[in-house]
Write a structure and sequence with these properties.
elongated; alpha+beta; 3-stranded mixed beta sheet; about 110 residues; YefM-like fold
């Protein structure tokens, strides 16, 4: 996929010519909007937003995979029982389950 470098436009110009800007974006151009020489917005075609969403999903998947690999590599074989951990933390599992059931029924 080839993504063209954005055109840089002042916000005032974009505001005055928004119709023309949207036409350019429909044609596949990306516009970087600047105010006082600082980037404040980007106007991009929808496929760019879809691509960003895909990349964010992949990034999350990779982070979870890395976490899983680290856990597998460092796992000692000892597992803690949920009831034991809850008791140590002062959490009543039955009460917690009851609260969750109430929230689910609302």
């Amino acid at each position: 996929m080839n993504i063209a470098l954005p055109d840089i436009r002042p916000a005032s110009l974009v505001g005055r010519n928004f119709g023309a800007v949207t036409t350019e974006v429909e044609e596949g151009r990306s516009i970087l909007v600047v105010k006082n020489n600082r980037p404040v917005a980007a106007i991009v075609p929808p496929n760019i937003i879809e691509r960003i969403d895909e990349l964010n999903d992949r990034e999350e998947d990779i982070a979870l995979l890395i976490l899983s690999i680290i856990r597998m590599a460092t796992h000692s074989g000892h597992l803690n029982d949920l009831d034991d951990v809850a008791a140590e933390l002062g959490i009543d599992i039955a009460e917690l389950r009851s609260e969750i059931a109430e929230e689910d029924s609302d």
